[in-house]
Input
Amino acid sequence: MASQLAGSAPGFTIDPDRSARLIRYRLQGLWDRDMHNRYRDASIAEMRKFHAAGVPFNMLGDLRDFKTQAQDMNDQRQDLVKTALGLGLNKCAIILASSIVKMQLSRLTSTDAIAFFTSEDEAKAWLGI
Output
């Protein structure tokens, strides 16, 4: 598990579950380019493990404490979505509290593989877990 969270400071956690074919992640705070790069590298490393095993995977993201980000961070997230899809992402359920963050993230991709929810139960139901 990659972990960078400390209190309410900007950060992330990544928790892969190989048996469930699931990568759980949590993002919080306002990020800079360095934080995004650390998250990107850590998440791609986990995705590649599934890909190398020939196993498609789902993701469950908790972004309830994630702040509205600068446009350049959103552009980088769009590239990460494309990479994830190329590495075998089946579905990604994202739990949000902010409608502004939802607007930012919903512009990242036009794929049906990503959906947004306000509760963890709804997100899990959509993923089938």
User: Anything to note?
Assistant: Residues 2-127 form a domain with the Transcription Regulator spoIIAA fold (CATH 3.30.750.24).
